[in-house]
Amino acid sequence: MEQRKHSILFVDDDPFILRGFERSLDEYCENWRADFAFSGKEAINRLSEHSYDAIVTDIHMPVMDGIQLLDAVSRLNPGVIRFVLSGDTSDAQILKSTHLVHQMIPKPCEMQKIYGIVERACCLRDKLSDPQLLRIITGIKTLPSVPRLYNQLREQLQADTISSQAVANIIAQDAAMTAKILQLVNSAFFGLSENINSPQKAVTILGLNTIKSLVLGIQVFSEYQGKKNLPISIDAIWKNSLQVSSLAVSIARSLNLSSREREDARVSGVLLDIGMLLSFQIPGFYQNVIFNKNGQSLIESEYQYMGTSHAEMGGYLLGIWGLPDSIVEAVTFHHSPVVQAALKPDLLTSLHVANGLLKMCQTEKGQNFVAYLDMPYLQKLCLVDRLDEWVLMTRDLLENSHSPDGLES
Ligand SMILES: [Fe+2]
Q: Which residues are found with C-beta within 5 Å of the ion, ligand 1?
């Protein structure tokens, strides 16, 4: 089947830069249909005439700058993925664009690199076929944080002496904060040679002053303001994700995974059900999925109502935010790892097993692996014999887990 051409709109007030983009498109971007606009106004006109997958705009332009343009795009065409180009890492404007931009790209940047970043996001976009879901998720500016953690972080940042470790530990427990901070630090804009998978490292790289302006000034995080007494709560999602994170690290260790993969397991556990936070914003989600399951599992009910699940929705958001592939894949496939052709146990294995066993041990008295785990996948990896050992680990964690104030190492 022929791949659909992706439609990209480039915006820059400098004609030399746009011509440079145009010239290098033929070499690297055969499957793109690209248009060019010299101003924000022209870009808005083009967006009203044609549907685009992504927009790549310069940040500094006269009359309507890149931030104003992306603000308009996020309201008028929320399904378009938004990239910004900026040449100055100390640019205060770039921080102000954090909630509007999916990814920041340094300027100048070779077209080959721009192509890689934009094309990856567009390919993820292709996987989400429902136009309404696409608009909701791509249009998301902030995700809700656990109120208790949100308030703790604000208090910590307003204290006379701020502990960078304490700030990082609060962020590391909250899916929305973790995702946002990793989005920022992994942006090509910062030009780091390795992917950053730990909120602690992200806080060190960004520095406390930047974190302070992001949280207290630009208010890049937001407190969950949703309804109470629902069958699914942000607190329940949070507690489950911390338990999955902790168990996934232990399972990764027992599988002799590398320290990098164990760190990936920790952060992927925290981000595991970030798609559930997106679900809060989907009209009819509670009535049609949560309240009306008719004996189905949550996942089955999600597929029936939305044609996708919280796992794919979360993976899509993290992908267009530019998080490392390993984390995006683990989150996307945590309920269905067999889709991935695994040859050996990896991060996804530890996440899938931790999530499944925690649910099983919390719900059932005995062992019912088939209902909670992808057994053909575990058989393929010769891991079925390890399950009894991991069940003991799970029960141990459940017996000894208190209110999760911190992450164990
Ligand atoms: Fe899940």
A: 273
